[in-house]
Amino acid sequence: MIRKAQKKDIKRIEELGNNYKSNFAQTYLLEQYIDDSNYIILVSEDIVVNAFLLISITSSSYELEFLYVDKDYRKRGIATELINYFLENYKDTRPIYLEVASCNKIAINLYKKFAFEIINIRKHYYDNNIDAYVMKR
To answer: N or C: which end of the chain has fewer CB atoms below 10 A?
Structure first.
C-alpha cells in the first residue's frame, strides 16, 4: 500500500534514510516536511514502512529528492510503484527533476523507464569524485 507519510512514520523513515546517509535525520527534518505543503513524502508499507519517496514542490517544478527501499524489500517493484503513484496522483505540466550518482545504473535505468532524461552532469559532485546526473521528465 502506498500513502502519504504521517508523523507516526517519521522514526521508521529516519531509520531507512540513515541506512543510506548517516546524517539523514539531521538533513531532512521530516516533521517539518510532513507539515509543509511544499513537500510530499510517500511511503510503501507491508507490515512496516519499507520504502519512501521524498518530493519537493515549487511553483514551477517537482524534485524527487530521495528514494529509498529497505534492502529486505528490494527487487519487488516497490520503487516503481512509488514513482507510478506519484505520477498518477500529481498530474500537471510541471517538469520533474532528480539527481542520481552516475554509477547507480539500477536507479538510472529505473528513471529512464519513466522517460527521465539526463540533462546535465555535475562533475565530482559526490564523495570519491563521483559525478551526479541531473535528470528531467
So the answer is: N
Amino acid (1-letter code) at residue 76: R
For residues 61 and 37, is the Cβ–Cβ distance under 8 A? no
pTM, full prediction: 0.92
The topology (CATH level 3) of 1-94 is: Aminopeptidase (3.40.630)
Distance CA 13, CA 42 (A): 10
Please identify which residue in the block is written with the cell numbers 528514494: 67
Domain locations in the chain as residue ranges:
1-94, 96-137
Secondary structure (H, E, C), the chain: CEEECCHHHHHHHHHHHHHHCCCHHHHCCHHHHHHCCCEEEEEEECCCEEEEEEEEECCCCEEEEEEEECHHHCCCCHHHHHHHHHHHHCCCCCCEEEEEECCCHHHHHHHHHCCCEEEEEEEEEEHHHEEEEEEEC
112-128 pLDDT per residue, tens: 999 999 999 999 999 88
C-alpha cell read off for 21: 546517509
